[in-house]
Prior knowledge:
Distance between the termini: 24 Å
Helix content: 25-40%
Structural class: alpha/beta
Domain BREX system Lon protease-like BrxL N-terminal: 13-143
CATH topology of the largest domain: Rossmann fold
Pfam family, one: BrxL_ATPase
Number of strands: 12
Protein name: BREX system Lon protease-like BrxL N-terminal domain-containing protein
Strand content: 15-25%
CATH class of the largest domain: Alpha Beta
InterPro entries: BrxL-like, BrxL_N, P-loop_NTPase
Oligomer: single chain
Amino acid sequence: MELDQLDQIAAAHLEGYLVRKDLVRTFARQFPVPTYVVEFLLGRYCASTDPDEIEEGLEIVQRQLESRTVRAGEEELFKARAYKNGTVKLIDLVSARFSQKDNGYVATLPSVQLNRVRINDNVVDDNERLLTGGFYAEITLEYDSLIAEEKGDAFGIKDLRPIQLSKRDVLDDLAEARKQFTSQQWKDFLLRSIGLEANALSDRAKDANLLRMVPFVERNYNLVELGPRGTGKSHLFQQVSPYAHLISGGKATIAKMFVNNASGARGLVCQYDVVCFDEVSGISFDSKEGINIMKGYMESGEFSRGKESIRADGSMVFVGNFDVDVEHQQRVGHLFGPLPPEMRDDTAWMDRIHCYLPAGMCRK
């Protein structure tokens, strides 16, 4: 693959941070993990422009994805490997909850259908997002036959490594590299980083796609994106970054979104940069109080439960589909029509929205 000018500038000043997007497509949909998991592994083993190094890294990534991702029907195979060998490594969406019965935490690993996995308290303390939906991680799963004989939970998490960028000085490196790009080149580079080729987009479409990224970098930014189906509205929040959490339909609880009064565990808005409500027309809170807390949080970035006032930085994004074309929607209602009743006719909620993005302006 021949590098264009933009790639050459990036390769010269962002060594170790680059992933070739054509390599990502090599593994796209082959394995049951989001795109950012593949990019994480490619960034570790293929962060180079040398063809030989890339080829060697690709073989490692292929082996790891084949041996550590659990396909449908392979659940018992991975459990058997842990039983025979003592441990097995896998990549999975791990979450945890407090168990009063066990007087401690237990983890859930959905890909191997285990919902009572031993996990040390200090692992949960160091990774609080385990308690609010979890995250993808590289996991060493162990099997303890002695505990099994005592009728306990034989499976346990021996080691856990979150899949995310771990360098703390990354912003300094990016700021220094930014000086080498013109404004237009930097825009194109950002779009390329999420898998879009800027040359195929109009200036308006570029700006619309960049606007989708604002909630990741602006605290407490509230965005609504409504439009036709198939415009990739949720892709950015589900596939590209581990710092966003996607809620798809169903009920949203106060405990999950904000804080659990019983345990004191902070909710999604405290743990993620962005909380995205997908198919927002089907979203509802478990009580009317939930909408009121949300409105207060969207206004000030704070919410109160009990005696404590809690501040959080998480942005909120609401995405949904028009069942009719926009012109017809405007004739029969207004552009907030696809939202649930608690939101679409509440002017106080509308006042807290910073941006309304028509999804038709973006390319999938």
